[in-house]
Amino acid sequence: MKCPVCGEDVDMFDICDNCNWQNNGPKETEYDLSGPNKMTLKQAKEAYKKGEKVM
After folding, report:
1. 2 - beta bridge partners?
2. DSSP per position, 9-54
């Protein structure tokens, strides 16, 4: 599967080697703040586009 933040190949529930986002699976939404990540998926995508750290 593809990382929802950067588009690199990543296994389900794995941490992306490219952007450090931990994939929360197929039910992940843009605005959930659950699981191990400290930002929402939307915030992570915006940070990645700006070259900022994804947490």
Report:
1. 9
2. B--TT-B-TTT-PBP--TT--TT---TT-SS-HHHHHHHHHHTPPP
Q: Do 23 and 34 touch, CB atoms closer than 8 A?
A: no
Distance CA 18, CA 33 (A): 21
CA dihedral angle for residue 31, residue 32, residue 33, residue 37, rounded to 10 degrees: -100
10 Å CB burial of residue 50 (0-12, 13-18, 19+) is exposed
User: Which pLDDT tens digit goes with each residue over 1-55?
Assistant: 899 999 999 998 899 999 999 988 777 788 877 678 999 999 999 999 999 999 9
Sign of CA dihedral 22, 23, 27, 31: positive
